[in-house]
Amino acid sequence: MSATRRDALKVLAATTSLPFAAQAATEPKNFTAEEFAVLSRLSDLILPRTDTPGAVDAGVPAILDEAAGRSPALWDTLREGVASLGGAKFLSQSEAGQNEAVRRISGLDGAAPAPFFTALKNQVIDAYYSTREGLVTELGYHGNVPLAEFPGCTHPEHQRLD
Amino acid sequence: MQIRTSPEIADVLIVGSGAAGGMAAWNLTRQGVNVTLLDAGERFNRARFWTHVRPWEFRTREARGLHPPEFYLQPSEQPVLTPPGRPFDLMRVWGRGGKTNVWGRVALRYSDLNFREPALDGWEIPWPVSYAEMAPYYDRVEQLIGVCGGDDDEPFLPGSRYHLPPPNPRCGEYLIRRAAHHAGVKIVAGRRAVVTREHNGHAPCHFCGACGRGCDISAFFNSSDYLLEPALATGRLTIVDHAVAAEVLTGDDGLASGVRYFGRQTRDEHTIHARRVIVAASCVDSTRLLLNSRGTRHPNGIANSNDVIGRYLCEQIRFHMYGFVPELMGGPVHNDDGISGAHIYMPRFVPAGGKGRDYLRGYGMQFWGFGAGAGASFAKQLPGFGADLKRAVKQRYPALVALHPYGEVLPRADNRITLDPVRKDAYGIPLMRIEYSIGENERKMAEAMYTTCEEILHAAKAEVLPYRRGSLDVNGAAIHEHGTCRMGTDPKRSALNRYCQAHEVKNLFVVDGASFPTSTEKNPTLTILANAWRATDYMAAEMAAGRV
Ligand SMILES: Cc1cc2nc3c(=O)[nH]c(=O)nc-3n(C[C@H](O)[C@H](O)[C@H](O)COP(=O)(O)OP(=O)(O)OC[C@H]3O[C@@H](n4cnc5c(N)ncnc54)[C@H](O)[C@@H]3O)c2cc1C
Ligand code: SF4
Fold first, then answer.
1. What distance in Å separates the CA atoms of residue B466 and residue B449, rounded to the nearest whole number?
2. Domain ranges for chain A
3. How many Å lie between the centroid of ligand 2 and the Cα of residue B208?
4. In chain B, where the domains are located
């Protein structure tokens, strides 16, 4: 293994072992506190904390809030979606109840997913996997670094033609 | 408003500094010709590129008020008009080097058949140039700019002795190559204008994978660093930045006499006189400029009495299919950046015996975004939510494969660029209108393209992300426009002769992709470079002989 590749792996190891304390709670600039709280909870239901950070740990709600500021259409979709789930009342349900509510709009039961769910899920995915928590800690990305050489595939079993 | 006129008369005046204009400037200045070049923007400052800004640093930087360089021309600055329901997604870069600052670097030679095919199938006019004539120019361009790739000579994709070493493919690329082999489809090393070792003073690529943000060490060909800077060093090139050309002027003799242009920001009007004019503003902008050059001698636009300019716009059809290969599911995550984009390529595929080939011309395929990328947008197409979704994403992340076929669109007279009679831009230049549709041939070809993708992914036992057979990217998305000022031997059906010289105006040359009679299935820039070199060799010889 070349030195540069080893270095890259070291960087990865270091970042993976970072503690993932939840990001400092931010004040929303666009959503109301209530909307923001519900969206935060929904983000974590979509990509929860497991043995790696979840959406809230990665600061996804603040990214959603910024995105809403750039797109009035998205803002409306998310706001109306929160209302359709009962607003703050959504948060007083049990975790199982919340999961069930999301499940009903998620398309997992065969029906088409609710447009609100799709919009939120897409935003959460784009946001989460662009953060260090999502991209590096969760997925193990260690690219965009200068390398002396590019090893590419080193597996003879992948390189056969037959 | 006062019109400023430069006192000097330029020997050669070039409009545009992308692949075509940059090559024209480089080749003429090195042969002793003095050149003045108008460019609609300025040099992009490499020190400010975000090549090494990590994805998660973008937001914090932007929050601090920092911005990556704005390569792309905003449609709001230069709107393109299209009929309802027929969008055309035009990508433009105004600035030194043009689109070569951000291009995909796929650098393929056209094959002998690409040049001969129109004559063989009889659809529209033949190419006036053969592979044999272009080959030495391909050799020279590859030696000059550095193209890495395989030297394998395929029936539809010539090899080259001058390729630099290709980067090793990623795991997924090898697996797709094997699957394609099982499906009877040949995959070869990609050919990309990336210098994989130091070449002509250009630093070698360090595989950071961020080419789309501009390369801060210019390890891939861009016209600004590779052509304009050496041309400037001769002392024979003068560049006028922020100069938006509006019209090629003509004298009483009907010859081109200069260009009228506007300061991009100041909006001041200027005139510059010239003995010869080369138009190289990229296919669509060159066409707009020519159509807007309407003097008493050229009421239908300069060099356009036969009404050919603006017509025959041809591009490529394209779509994307994604899947996950089982061998890599849940496996280790490698740094898959490489030279960013595909290390492999599928030359035009024709099923054995031409089975199911009910269309003219053909398609090739690129393979972008294999394995661990700087994001996971494929996750949006996975069902569900929660820990299950998170696990499913992580498992598939190293196993992503992506197929992007490109198919030739036939030239048709009614696929055309015109000038809007009413609407104008901030300088008073008429806005352009693009009317473009694909036809039956392309729809049949798309079916075959889908079949090839399905067969490869099936042979790979890949899990395929949902797709809709037959759906295509919006027109224009391939960013390979051609045909609107085409070369030909018949002056009634073409605007330019075989050396890109206007039939009707002998001191006017158009050397970008507008001059190509067909779009082929391939990425054009290597051929644009070779052709502009060839055309300006001819021009320099004609100048030396006193004929132009
Ligand atoms: C994202 C992307 C990926 C691509 N990938 C590939 C690839 O992999 N392989 C490939 O072969 N091609 C690729 N292309 C296409 C490639 O970039 C073009 O084929 C090539 O740049 C065309 O060169 P050109 O000189 O004709 O035009 P451009 O490079 O577009 O240059 C046009 C020049 O004209 C100037 N200009 C325009 N209008 C005016 C005006 N009115 N007055 C004065 N100056 C003007 C501009 O400032 C610019 O300097 C890609 C393009 C993009 C955007
Ligand atoms: S991958 Fe190579 S060519 Fe691309 S930006 Fe990095 S160094 Fe430049």
1. 16
2. 32-47+56-140
3. 5
4. 1-106+126-137+212-315+413-435+479-548, 149-190+316-408+438-474
A121 confidence band (pLDDT: 50, 70, 90): very high
- Helices of type H across B127-236: 131-145, 171-182, 223, 229-233
Q: Which ligand 2 atom is at minimum distance from the Cα of B218?
A: 8
Name the amino acid, one letter, at B4.
R
> What pLDDT digit, counting tens, does each position of B333-366 carry?
999 999 999 999 999 999 877 777 899 999 999 9
For ligand 2, whether the C-beta of B208 sits within 6 Å is yes
Q: What is the tens place of the pLDDT at every residue in B98-135?
A: 999 999 999 999 999 999 999 999 999 999 999 999 99
What is this structure's pTM? 0.95
User: Is residue A6 pLDDT above 50, yes or no?
Assistant: no
CATH architecture label of B149-190+316-408+438-474: 2-Layer Sandwich (3.30)
Contact A140 B333 (CB under 8 A): yes
CATH number of B1-106+126-137+212-315+413-435+479-548: 3.50.50.60
How close is the Cα of B441 to the center of ligand 2, in Å? 38
Dist. CA B497–CA B119, nearest whole Å: 17
β-pairing, B237-240 with B35-38?
Answer: parallel
**Beta strand B321-324 pairing with B463-464:** antiparallel
Query: B239: Cβ below 6 Å to ligand 1?
Result: no
Mutate to test the pocket of ligand 2, among B194, B195, B218 (most ligand atoms within 8 A of CB): B194
- Characterise B250 by phi-psi region: left (phi > 0), alpha (psi -120 to 50), beta (else): beta
Residue of A nearest to B51 (CA): A144
| Chain A residues 51-90 with a CB less than 8 Å from chain B | 63, 66
Q: Residue B315: its pLDDT value, please?
A: 97
B160 CA from centroid of ligand 1 (Å): 24
Q: Is the pLDDT of residue A15 over 70?
A: no
- Percentage of chain A beyond pLDDT 90 is 81
Enter the tokens of residue B242. 């922020």
**Any idea which ligand is nearest the CA of B197?**
2
Nearest to B208 among A47, A122, A145 (CB): A145
The number of the ligand 1 atom at minimal distance from the alpha carbon of B192 is: 8
Q: How far apart are CA B91 and CA B89, in angstroms?
A: 6
For the CA of B51, the closest atom of ligand 2 is 5
